[in-house]
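The freezer alarm interrupted the setup, so I double-checked each line after restarting. Inputs confirmed:
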Amino acid sequence: MPENVTQRLVCDLSRLDGVIRPVAPTDGELVARIGQGEIDAFDILVARYRPRSLRFATHFLGAKEDAEEAVQDAFVRAFRGLGRAAPDRFGAYLYRILLNRCRTLATRRLWWRRLAGPIDDGPDIGVPHPAAADAARDEIDQALAQLKPEYREAFLLKHVDDMSYDEMQQITGKSIPALKMRVSRACESLRQILGPS
Amino acid sequence: MTAEPAWLVQTAAHLRTPIEPRSDGYDRQIGAAVRRDRSVRRTRRRLGLGAFVLASLVAFWGRTPGAARTTVEFEIDAPTADRVSLVGDFNNWDQAAVPMRRGTRPGQWQTTVPLPNGWYRYAFLVDKSVWIADPAKSIAPDADFGQPTSLLVVE
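Predicted 3D structure, all chains:
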């Protein structure tokens, strides 16, 4: 009898195979659930997109505190306008908002620095990266900080977030040739600083 | 397709290193900010923009310099409870933020919280599981977490 039970269980499991799979809900499904009032579904989107968003914002703004503010603000605004977003393109939608928040924060900070006068309190963008203990990594952060913001954002989207130019166009609203030019100039500037002399 | 130069590979690899937030609760903090914003917008819609602006102005001008915070005393009778905590939008609904202490009467739990002028929503969490709105106060019009909350106006 025990053998029969074992056999039956094996059969049942084999029948289940291919039917039940632990599939994570897509962005579109989560957005639909939020639309039906299930706000907890947004927490899944936060967990899904926060790491990339925080990494981008930290490298763009150079300070983790500012980056956290920008990311939180971006998620709040993304939730607010969720009805206007294409459900399956939540990532691009969020990044577009995040990029705008980062630009605004960077401009505001620059404005305050100018207002405060020529107090030298370190480089504009010196990323205190937790893993940047060695000089090479510091050098990378400093080199990135020297780029114009529009070059920096194009470089980060292309070479760190591995986006296609189509995706970058959706997020930045810039033409593909313009984006290619920005990435190229960013690479050229970085090569001069970091590349073999 | 040409291979990327070594400096670019190294740079990208460094920049792809995950960045950890300063606090472990950062994701929850984002969730709380989203819910707070949603709640404020709902209240604003219900009251109408004019009333909301008027209430904000009244709250702003009503502040006294040097006495911006009012100490509010919360209490509830929960004779069978082992622990009670106060949760509200002023502490991001964090059940660990304001644990209540036993009062002078048997079954009474109380705590005090200094709060700036404004409108707040709150509730009591009994034994970490039972969510109770304050029986002595009016119920807030919407339940963000699917639970009833009480409305408090500090002025």
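Quick read of the result. The beta strands of chain B are 69-77, 84-88, 98-99, 101-102, 108-116, 118-126, 130-132, 150-154.
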